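Researcher: Go.
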Amino acid sequence: MRRRALSVLFWIFFVVSGLLCLIVAFVLWIVTTSFDPQRRLNHRFSCWWAALYARVYPGWTVRVTGRDHIRPDHAYVIVANHTSMADIVLMFCLFRQFKWVSKAAVFNYPILGWNMRMCRYIPLVRGDKDSINHMMQTCVRWLENGMSIVMFPEGTRSKDGWLKPFKHGAFTMALQTSRDVIPVAIHGGHRLIPKHGKTFATSADLWVEILPPLAVDGTADVETLSERARETIRVALAADPGEPEHRPAAHA
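Model: Structure:
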């Protein structure tokens, strides 16, 4: 009962604060059009906006470690595990410049989608070859112009917290542009709110663990780079007793 009540209050707060923040973001978008074509200031505001939700809920603690692995003057391909809608909020807590790759349907959502368009994030229609090619070309252009890209290489949220196989798009663009890959292990997202869940846990220890960069120099192929990134995240999750990957038995 308490979980449901707190979740309802949170969703109300999300809508009301989202409308207010969207107005601020729109004003910022207009004012900075002439001198901020990359929408860095809108993205910075989005980080603050998202961090507000990560910190306002009673009983939640949010830690971000390893932020120094992401140098502000470098562009990276940043990849993270994905088990919860909360992962999006948690990745904004990196407080670094980047462009999201997200499914195209999200760009039509009220508030969230409108802000994503203003920030010039990158839409993707899953399974559509033209959309995939356009996404890859757009990401490569951003990387070559010094802007990091963030992707969830599992492609969709894991239902049970176990790490799914990685798709190769992020690693293809990393090799193509010679940009290092930053693996990020998100701890606790699936316990906070599972896939398709509507209510939040009343308490949660959320940890965004930014791991050391994986250099692409000398990497033979996309498969090798993908497996290196996946194994790095898997090992980080396996060290956490609260994560499914910590269990010694193989996942069926």
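Model: Residues 2-31 form the longest helix (30 residues).
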